Amino acid sequence: MERTQGAMSIFERDRTFNQPINRVTSFLMVIFHIGAIAALFMFSWKAVGLALVLLWVAGGLGIGMGYHRLLTHRCYKTPKWVEYVLTVCGTLALEGGPMFWVAVHRLHHQNTDQEGDPHTPRDGGLCAHMGWIMTGQAMHCGSAELLPYVPDLSGLARDIKLLPRVEQSYERKSLVQFGSTQLRTPEVRPNAND
Question: What are the tens digits of pLDDT across the range 80-133?
Fold first, then answer.
């Protein structure tokens, strides 16, 4: 009995179970997992090899090198065509577009494990892992709301026609509504030759 109450309190404390679920995102996640189970019955070494290559391209090159190190933190410089190739590889991971991914990750670093962190474990383990995606709270920000967090990507958006032309001279101290918390726009220093 006590063990059941402990398990129930975990669910009650997890923010995922206190917010409405985004049905489209949740449906697609269920379909992907059903597909993964079905793939076990269609096993071939060629398919495993292809899956590993795609994992490396989408996860390693796209998310790790592209979205995270290059676009979010600007850890290194590349020619524009390499930046665009890595960005396309990142989209293959189905973790959202570059502006969304970078903005949410910068919000996470700005507010790590405190109010305003879009995927803090303080809101529950499931919420930190995938609940924040399933509830859709991070997806509710439109491009205009995310843009102050990614001023260095406005050129990327314009170049690959993700957004209409964006004026780059906006107020850096603007506030953005994210959930119920107002956050200060982080200072981003784009590359000198961008």
Answer: 999 999 999 999 998 888 888 898 889 888 888 888 778 888 888 888 888 888
Residue 133 counted as domain residue: yes
How many C-beta neighbours within 10 Å does residue 26 have?
Answer: 15
Q: Which long-range contacts (CB under 8 A, 24 or more apart) does 167-171 make?
A: none
Q: What is the DSSP string of 156-184?
A: HHHHTTSSS---S---TT-EEEETTEEEE
User: What is the b/e burial string over 83-116, where b = at least 16 CB atoms within 10 angstroms of the residue's CB?
Assistant: bbebbbbbbebebbbbbbbbbbbbbbeebeeeeb
Domain encompassing residue 118: 12-43+96-184
Number of folded domains that form the chain: 1
Q: Are 83 and 62 in contact (CB under 8 A)?
A: no
Identify whether 61 is part of a domain. no
The mean pLDDT value for 45-70 works out to 95
pLDDT at 165 over 50: no
